[in-house]
Amino acid sequence: MVKKFFRINIFILFIFLLFFGCARREKPRQYLLERLGDVAFAQLYADGFEELSLNDKILAYHLYQAALAGRDIAYDQNHRHALEIRDMMEEIVTHSGGIDSTLMDKITAYLKLFWVHTGNYDSNISRKFVPDFIFDELYQAAWTALGNGADLGAEDEKGLNDKLRILERTLFDPNYEPIQTNKSPHSGEDLLTGSANNFYEGVTLEEVDNYPERYPLNSRVVKVDGVIAEQVYRAGNDTVPPGLYAEEISRIIDHLEDALLYANPKQREALGHLIDYYRTGDPEDFRKYNIAWVADSPPVETINGFIEVYMDPRARKGEYEGLVGFVDPDRSRLMRTLVENAAYFERKAPWAERYKKKEFHPPVAKAYQVIMGTGDAGPLCMAGINLPNDEEIRENYGCKNFFLANVMDAFRGVSQGRVVDEFHPTPEEVQLLKDFGADGANALIAMHEVVGHGSGRVADTLRFDPDVYLKEYASTVEEARADLCALWHIFDDTLMALGVIPDPRCAEAAARRYVRNDLLILRGVPEGDQLEEDHDRGQHLIVNYLMEETGAVEPLKKDGKIYLYINDLKRFHQGVGELLIELQRIKAEGDYQAIKKLVNSYGVKFDPVWRDEVIGRVKAIDLPRYTAMVMPRLNPVRNKFGTITDVKISYPMDFMTQMLEFSGKREPQPIYNYE
């Protein structure tokens, strides 16, 4: 729950990309591949892969395959029918002969959005999206595809009709299970019964809260014949039976075991614990994995498992993700500087001494080139990652921070620089952002990850991880706290001496940009008047608090347009400190009632009139809302005996081709070298 500065909203992310993108000049290349409504599809490039050692290339290839092997798990977690719908749509588009071309365009568009969001719910606002075609059109397309040899799980007209009728409401009714993760349920529903994700079945929030979960991160909780039980994601071994997705998890294990041959000793130890965890599902094996994982900093890195809990309204169940990347040494300098001085920033934090770390384990922090992201890590990729999420491990063993440099390049590559002119109210502020915004933003996102997520300690009296106490507000607390840490320290003169920022005006530029983005996040919620996503709620809480409690931020109307404006930087900084002190206390003490009041007072509701205006203004400057990544393709070069002698990297340059390859509907050909 502490991995992302801002999840995937391009309006928020793109402001941080300029520094990283400009750090290494390169000839122009094609990033933008296509547009589909408010989604941009971008090719992700991984510069430097060719320079890796053969050992590291082969390691990367096996980790790449391990990440891909668990992809279907994430679809199933998103909704109980997601895999069935995806497979049906893929079969139709690959057996489309004789289907009306206009209808095929609609089916293809829906399938692309389904791939983008790993299901039929918008990743940011958690709302269902429905096709532009109707049930009868889908039936005719499916019937034609069936005649073309498509595998639709039905052999005749009745079987096909029965199958489609089961899926009809899920596909076409926007009011049926409308919200994937509902943290503000209507009367008569609770967090679980009002949410459409597949972590729970037939149980209420009260029943689950009173049920002693043994596998809180990697299980489903279901009620079968009146009895509540956990269904665990695991492959099984001689002592425990196979569980959910045992076949897919066994394939993950196979690829991880192949990777062991090429891993260094510390990485081999960590991967060994991960393999044990995938076999047993035992949280203790995952704990051992995380402890070993943070102790190593290999050139080729992976995150694989049930990691982030954003999709679970209880913030307990982890969504599957697989990510693989390699270190970008040229762009890791800033991270190293902040890591080396993390103890200094801990001492300078404004909260009480009892919440400050006494023993400091410097975090691992580097920039990476991503070569695979799936599940919760792709095709919509995060900008930064901070793991593990377990607070006790973070405090006692350390953590890792990732900047995904080539993801940032891709965002920059599909975006234009018109937001500054459109959403800042004065010529002076516009110029400030153009002169110092990139460096200020660079520092802010790095400090969010390294200094923010890596800071503080919990009270000695807290028996469990703060998440247990803070429940559905845990992720919002942590993201807002990390934002506030960055906003607090960005004004520290020491950053100049360290070379983190080149000019003190970078701090003002970063603050003004942050406040501006509270308007931009509204574009991600085209309906209703409340925010659901944790990062959005955290940012909205901060800006609203500063507006209502300090007056340092004010709405400003100019030429018929709304702006958010900082009118007093000193009061702004003081207000940031006040709220940061309170959020650190809330986290340290697990104060559920306090965070519930804060979030509901400042972090949820917004003015829909402002939202409608923002949507119109953003549309006028033609910025995408999401950017979906087309991952690099790793091609193993084999000799006549099947031994890998090299791994080549290539770029598919087509989203649909890659998704069908990932689903096994198209098979990329291996490269053979007989010399």
Provide a descriptive summary of the structure in words.
This protein has 675 residues and is α/β, with parallel strands linked by helices. Among the domains are: 10-47 and 328-628, no CATH class; 80-120 and 131-173, no CATH class; 632-672, no CATH class. Helix content is 47%, strand content 14%. The strands form 5 sheets. The chain has a 5-stranded mixed sheet. Helix 10 (246-260) runs antiparallel to helix 11, helix 20 (474-489) packs antiparallel against helix 24 and helix 23 crosses helix 25 (592-603). The longest helix is centred in the middle third of the chain and has 26 residues, at 427-452. It is globular and about 70 Å long.
What's this entry about, in short?
The protein is an alpha/beta fold and 675 residues long. 47% of the residues lie in helices and 14% in strands. Helix 5 (82-93) runs antiparallel to helix 6 (101-116) and helix 23 crosses helix 24 (569-589).
Instruction: Compute the average pLDDT.
Output: 91
Query: How is the main sheet built?
Result: 5 strands, mixed
User: What overall form do the CA principal axes indicate?
Assistant: globular
Uncertain parts = 1-26
Distance between the termini: 49 Å
Strands across the major sheet, in which order?
6-7-8-10-9
**Helix share of residues?**
40-55%
Computed structural class = alpha/beta
The tally of strands reads 16
Helical element count? 27
Per DSSP, what share of the residues sits in E-state strands of 2 or more residues? 5-15%
Q: How large is the radius of gyration?
A: 24 Å
